[in-house]
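ESCALATION

Customer reports they have been waiting on this structure for their group meeting. Please prioritize. Original submission:
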Amino acid sequence: VEGEGAWKLVGVIALRSLILADPSAPLAEVMRTEFQTAHPDEAANEVAQRIAEYNLLALPVMDEAGEILGIITVDDAMEILLPKDWRQRLPRLFG
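Update from on-call: job pushed to the front of the queue and completed.
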């Protein structure tokens, strides 16, 4: 993230890449500069489906200027995609 007074995303790091990277490697060598993003006008269901499709842990929400407005997590996506009765059972299944 760089920029004065604004949060401009310059790259993302996959968890797998971070775990497998040389511990002394700078993040710039591990990160990808091409990545998926969401726009605040997108439908929540479409964003949740994209998270599932690309197997993402999180998806940044960015405006037209590339400023970060927020992050949608895989947990957020599950709440959107899973039926309510399944969500109520999850804590019992995995908790």
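Sent to customer with the following note: The longest helix spans residues 84-94.
Escalation resolved.
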